[in-house]
Amino acid sequence: MSPLAVWSAPLSARRVFVVLLVLLMAVAAQVSDAGAVSGPREAGAAATPDRARYDVALRSDADGSHWSGRQRVSFRNASDRPLREVYLRLWGNGADGCGTPAAPAAVRVSHVRGGTPNRPAVNCTALRIALPKPLARGARTSLAFDVSITVPDRNARFGREGAFRFLGNALPVLAVRDAKGWHLDPYVALGESFYALTSDFRVRLDHPSALKVPATGRTRTLPGGPGRSVTLSLADRVRDFAWAAGPFRTATQTTPGGVRVRSYWAPGTPAEGVRLNRTDAVAAIDRFGREFGRYPYGEIDLVMTSGFGGGMEYPGLVLLGTTEEGSAVVHEVAHQWWYGIVGNDEYSSPWLDESFAQYANARFHGWDTRDCWSDVYWPDDESALIGSMAYWSRHPGEYHLVYTAGPCALADLERTLGADTMARLLKGYVRDHWYGVSSTAAFKKAAQSVTDQDLGPFWETHRIR
Ligand SMILES: [Zn+2]
Q1: How far does residue 354's CA lie from ligand 1's centre (Å)?
Q2: Where does the secretion signal sit in this chain (predicted)?
Q3: What spacing in Å lies between the alpha carbon of 443 and ligand 1's midpoint?
């Protein structure tokens, strides 16, 4: 995620800081009380359920505001402990909660087969489903349910702008249980709460032919019923599935490295910004592929409108608020590696995706980061770069540090280790966590392994502790 488009031009750190501060104060009012909700704890358990496969068929109304259909998900228990339940995260309810009789929740699940659902919890973003019998380690089972999705009336990652619909975090996905128990953290508008293991998706979206439907994965669109089309998507080893719908204009390019970049923009989007986004995306995909490991998904969709605030990343699809100066496209493309390929619990460790994406962005744009640490102001001794979204939600005015101090810390680490060693570190770190989940401890260990220098004082100084 990135608050508005402050990434494309070589702005001074101070101006970035001020812009971010204003923005974050603006969104602070939307942040609900984000006290962590933790499940029962267990020691040393593998993250589960894993190897999920989602089969989804949804049909939209005339303008893409409402989607309904059937979703099936099969999964494995990767843990030594039996799996007696799973949770679906209904993140689309994060902003509006459980709704009212007159305006029901945005995402609703019904007619569950394969398990017994409770009432939705955590502000209707978590649905516990008890399995009929405990699932042993290595065993698979599946659930199926009806899903109903109504796009909210706000310009947001799950929202709308004019005739265009954004369906980010709209599709129910499985929560993760690991050594810390079930992760049932609350939704935060300020950043991301999302934590998911890589999964395979097969999604069929039936929509009016007048709507173009960019989506996660490799997509193709076939004729449907009268006046309708069917967009089919295949997406393997991704953490989420997002799509959009509207009368977009489109263009397709293939990078020299062989990745298909499909651009979708609303007619009112400044043409120069669309052109800049496309050029930067093509260059960034191949550059980050060389630096971190080849982009594995074959295709990425750029979804561009003029009114969307900032940018938002999903596997294989990024939402980009676009001005004549472009957008945060490079930052959002970098998230394909930092969040997408190398996963992290975005609620507990947002710096692991945001600071890394912004470090990659700064390098791409050639920003001068010397002395950047002298611009970093910490409000007190307690605050740390590695704070959770629970912390940042209580201190929204400080959340910019993840985007400013974070990339600066990584640039300082590059100066400490040397550019070649830093490049080797990042390439190896990505390889070791490819399609997996990292942690702050894992990154520190990886960094320490490439140098004889004790990095303890470095972590302390940079508040990575
Ligand atoms: Zn971001």
Answers
A1: 5
A2: none
A3: 18
| Tens of pLDDT, residue by residue, the chain (465 residues) | 987 544 444 444 434 443 444 344 333 333 333 333 344 444 447 999 999 999 999 999 999 999 999 999 999 999 999 999 999 999 999 999 999 999 999 999 999 999 999 999 999 999 999 999 999 999 999 999 999 999 999 999 999 999 999 999 999 999 999 999 999 999 999 999 999 999 999 999 999 999 999 999 999 999 999 999 999 999 999 999 999 999 999 999 999 999 999 999 999 999 999 999 999 999 999 999 999 999 999 999 999 999 999 999 999 999 999 999 999 999 999 999 999 999 999 999 999 999 999 999 999 999 999 999 999 999 888 899 999 999 999 999 999 999 999 999 999 999 999 999 999 999 999 999 999 999 999 999 999 999 999 999 999 999 999
Centre of ligand 1 to C-alpha 335, Å, is 7
339: CA distance to ligand 1 center in Å? Answer: 9
The answer to whether the peptide bond before residue 3 is cis (omega within 30 degrees of 0) is no
Buried b / exposed e across 291-330, counting CB within 10 Å, b at 16+?
bbbebebebbbbbbbbebbbbbbbbbbbbbbbeeebbbbb
Q: Which CATH number fits domain 37-157+167-187: 1.25.40, 2.60.40, 1.10.10, 2.40.128?
A: 2.60.40
Residues 6 or more apart in contact with residue 44 via CB below 8 angstroms: 179
Distance 332 CA to ligand 1 centre (A): 6
The answer to whether the 13-33+344-465 and 37-157+167-187 domains have the same CATH topology is no
13-33+344-465, CATH topology level: Neutral Protease; domain 2 (1.10.390)
How far apart are the CA of 88 and the centre of ligand 1, in A? 24
SS3 sequence of 218-263? EEEEEECCCCEEEEEEEEEEECCCCEEEECCEEEEEECCCCCEEEE
Q: 0.85 cut: is pTM over it? A: yes
